[in-house]
Amino acid sequence: MTDRITKLRGFLATNPSDAFLQHALALEWIKAGDEPQARAVFEKLLGETPGYVGSYYHLAKLLERQGETEGAINWYQQGMEAAQKAGDQHAYSELRSALEELQF
Length: 104
Hints:
By secondary structure, the chain is mainly alpha-helical. It is 81% helix and 0% strand.
């Protein structure tokens, strides 16, 4: 386990609902090569904080890498809905572009 993962887990121990820390931890798990752990963190984060728009893209890309196309499509679509609700046109466009690239 990397030092950054250890630090992030420590911060989350005192503030377990911090979406930024959860997102950062999931990205560190990806860097460390542990995609199942990253997936679990992203899914927990989005289950608790569905408005954390940036995590949808990363989770969907992770599922794409694992060959789970339907799951990736589902997360891209959920992310697009969350981005629209948040008024985040940039995130919406990125998610839509990634979805279109996957589907066509």
